[in-house]
Write a structure and sequence with these properties.
Layout: H1 2-25, H2 28-31, H3 43-66, H4 71-93, H5 103-116
Helix pairs in contact: 1-3, 1-5, 3-4, 4-5
């Protein structure tokens, strides 16, 4: 169960670290081709989402790795599930049904990570 957690946590952590880093460092024009929703959300909110993604990635990895407050890994994974549910809702509200294709697997991975993190 621990090995499965690390596989899922590293995959999610890398994905959110990459996506969050882009949201923090790139302009709205640079993000728009990959993330069409950034034109309807103020950039400070986009930057905040990026920061939350980076902190969540750290929350998946650091607490179980250090043994300090490992319950935070469960909270980080649950937070990612909520984030993706909200992202799917945003896409659906914009009529972007095809864009929710990535949200569903990310929700499932986040839920799996939350469950697997109970091993710590």
């Amino acid at each position: 169960m621990v090995v499965a957690y690390w596989i899922v946590a590293v995959l999610l952590g890398l994905m959110y670290l990459f996506a969050g880093g882009r949201k923090i460092t790139q302009s709205q024009e640079q993000l728009a081709p990959m993330m069409g929703w950034v034109d309807t959300v103020p950039m400070p909110v986009v930057r905040l989402i990026g920061a939350v993604e980076i902190l969540g990635a750290a929350g998946l990895i650091l607490p179980p790795l250090t043994g300090i407050a490992p319950v935070l890994a469960i909270a980080a994974a649950a937070g990612f599930a909520v984030l993706q549910i909200l992202a799917a809702a945003l896409h659906l509200s914009r009529g972007e049904v095809k864009e929710t294709g990535l949200n569903v697997p990310l929700i499932l991975l986040a839920v799996a990570a939350a469950w697997l993190a109970t091993a710590f």
